[in-house]
């Protein structure tokens, strides 16, 4: 694989964009080397600026669950664009997407659209604070809810990669209202609720975590969290930016059979265009401006292009729910094939998988939280990442990320991926 044009484009980008990227994880800091610049994509394949074809396992970090440039989404956006791109006025398509989302997701009456997962989670926390009249929130080490100040406390994803769990610029005043618990450790939450009686507005959690790699909740953890929040009068926020419309029509609430008080969305709900959202029952959502006192706004929130992409995407998923099982089966197949190669070659590893999310960790200890995820051997991970890239497979460029499979992947692509691992496994020993 040759990457001359990507490297040249990266050098040029660095002159005008901080770090040459508009989101840090893209810069390959965790794995070294220059990032790959993509020219186009279709289905399960990326075509980079040097003419290389790559099998894609990030799907733009989740949104492109049906593959790149999915015809119905593209058509919807083109048709809508011909009628104008944004008006700053209400449009029918916003209601169409809202109605569909509310019908697909359990336990929500209304949904507000924003432009990113960060905005969705930030707004959900403000709503929880406004609704309860309390200031503090609990988040979990390694979970990532976007880059709003309240969340950049032992955050996951890129924030971990940069070893700056508490980003400069986040004031002590803000940080004091964010309490930190450990994933899969209900006791750590109970201790915080005891020490901050009556002061906690919400617990926010990734119900299946994807920003420490993929971390699955242990039996009873989320249920215990639900019971504790109910007992303490604390709102439970499911950050479903990754899991929403990926695990199934009803996301993690449906998969786990547990009701959250507020749910946030992103990624798939926008079909590849910038959409975030947060949703809850009327009793909570009616606290939002303009009907209620909790302020939240956005110039491009609900813009017709993004709404039409999201509507086309969710319409497809609603009409073909078999895709979720197809994706889960493909992910299980990939897991099994990669596992066999790593076991046969004696490479210490853990593979975590839930639905169409999975991650590979080079450690012999089960990966169940941020601390155990951080024990993965990053040198081995770098060799793995670059070896697979040389073999034509594009994986997340960080061990603190999840794979996001798309349903355009064929079993031939999965076999190709497993073979690519077999070709480089000696480097991992
Ligand atoms: P955005 O603001 O990036 O749309 O969403 C923030 C967010 C919130 N909640 C969860 C569970 C998320 O995973 C994310 C964003 N995910 C990362 C991938 N780990 C986005 C990739 C990036 O930062 O470039």
UniProtKB/TrEMBL annotation:
Enzyme Commission number(s) = 5.4.3.8
GO BP annotations of the record are: protoporphyrinogen IX biosynthetic process
Q: In which pathway does it act?
A: Porphyrin-containing compound metabolism; protoporphyrin-IX biosynthesis; 5-aminolevulinate from L-glutamyl-tRNA(Glu): step 2/2
Name the SUPFAM superfamilies on file. PLP-dependent transferases
Which cofactor(s) does the record list?
pyridoxal 5'-phosphate
- Note the superkingdom of the native organism: Bacteria
- Listed GO MF terms: glutamate-1-semialdehyde 2,1-aminomutase activity; pyridoxal phosphate binding; transaminase activity
Q: Where is the signal peptide?
A: none
Cellular component aspect of the GO annotation:
cytoplasm
N6-(pyridoxal phosphate)lysine modified-residue sites:
267
- Which keywords does this Swiss-Prot/TrEMBL entry list? Cytoplasm, Isomerase, Porphyrin biosynthesis, Pyridoxal phosphate
User: PROSITE patterns this protein is in?
Assistant: AA_TRANSFER_CLASS_3
Listed HAMAP family? HemL_aminotrans_3 (MF_00375)
Name assigned to this protein: Glutamate-1-semialdehyde 2,1-aminomutase
Q: Which organism is it from?
A: Maribacter polysiphoniae
